[in-house]
## 1
Amino acid sequence: MKTGKTVRESMNETTQQVLPGDTNPMGTAFGGQIVAWVDLAGAVPAMRHSRSTVVTASIDEMHFISTIRLGDIVVLKAAVNMTGRTSMEVGVRIEAENPRSGKRSHASTAYVTFVAVDENGRPTEIPFIIPESEVEKRRHAEAKERRAKRLAARKRLAAKDG
Ligand SMILES: CC(C)(COP(=O)(O)OP(=O)(O)OC[C@H]1O[C@@H](n2cnc3c(N)ncnc32)[C@H](O)[C@@H]1OP(=O)(O)O)[C@@H](O)C(=O)NCCC(=O)NCCS
């Protein structure tokens, strides 16, 4: 019988620091580096939830709403919002913390879909997610809407490829 797991069982919070090699010529964080950290931080709840190898199927569009500067501590909070049969949407909230003042600002939010795969790279069934708090239930409902849009986009792309 398929089992369920709570969001708390797999959530992850990690930190990184923006070093000179992570910046663009303006001295602010290079967006591609932030995306790589998002992918890494988001994979942790997906692996914990499924106890499988996971691959990134898609990353929804990302908007950087405030600047992340050289020396900032980047806090990445990741949790499973929703599960399908083999896939999971993981939400990753990115905050930039000034190490001197301690002030934190919301820099971006990303939604990453991971698919659990077996040793042959084939999608494999995962436990369902149990949202408990009001926030988790809201995120779960919103994730269902995003999944529908994502799958419609995937269908359009497949049709174009012929
Ligand atoms: C992701 C992947 C395993 C899906 O395999 P597939 O044969 O298309 O499998 P399916 O059509 O059965 O889809 C499996 C699940 O993935 C989901 N999925 C597939 N493509 C998706 C996409 N682009 N966005 C979101 N979810 C996607 C499906 O909705 C399905 O979810 P469900 O089981 O929860 O309903 C496969 O496309 C793959 O290996 N892609 C490369 C992944 C990779 O290398 N990532 C690293 C970055 S390049």
## 2
Amino acid sequence: MSKLEAPDSKHKIISSGNAELDSKMGGGLPAGSLTLIEGISGAGKSVLSQQIIKGSLNNGFTVALFTSENTVKSLVTQMASIDLDILDFLLIGKLRVYPVELSRLKQKAPQALLAAIKQERKFDIIVVDSFTAAIAHAADDEIILSFFEECKRLCGSGKTVIITLHAQAVAGDLIGPIRSMCDAHLNLRSEQDGQRIVKTLEVAKVRGAASVTGAVVGFDVEPGWGMRVIPISKARG
Ligand SMILES: Nc1ncnc2c1ncn2[C@@H]1O[C@H](COP(=O)(O)OP(=O)(O)OP(=O)(O)O)[C@@H](O)[C@H]1O
Ligand SMILES: [Mg+2]
């Protein structure tokens, strides 16, 4: 395997590995940004973050994933099921996966997660999938906001941080400040339309790519393939 050079984060973009999806996001997510991937259960937060993880690894970035949903083994299997093979990257240390039981940590979850993230100095990209369980037990809003503020600070020093979140788990007056703090905000929706489930990705914001703000793309998750962009009209049936 050829040695992958560490990219200069200031000038690179984070790719989902899917050209169509990237173009809807203004070419991809800017490196050094704080990204929020929001959506209800089954909307595609994990699949999208898995696409971004594999796309980033292919482009030479190193990634640390904190997952509250998978073990290393189940993640490898899940990603392989949508054609995202990560074994080699795990073996050479370009990808590190930390299963975290956020619900068990209760009130300490945000701070414990932040401390763990800060230890990963070597890694270009930090992904948290998902942060929802850390919110459930948080004592107050300040702790959640300061978690995002600290993540933003890490981005200021060149790291890229991607956080998935079930928006409905967050109190109404808290989600606004969180969204504003993020450089990129992707909103995933999954709605029943008659017999079909319609999945959409709304590019609510991508810093430096104002032209894509508000773009909505329809997609399906296909076994053996992953996210496939489909026309919204078709998605809506
Ligand atoms: N290998 C696969 N083959 C087919 N569909 C899949 C595959 N993996 C995931 N999906 C589908 O993709 C959709 C999105 O799943 P995903 O796990 O990304 O949702 P999520 O937003 O992370 O949900 P949660 O909040 O429950 O974690 C689901 O409908 C799921 O069934
Ligand atoms: Mg998930």
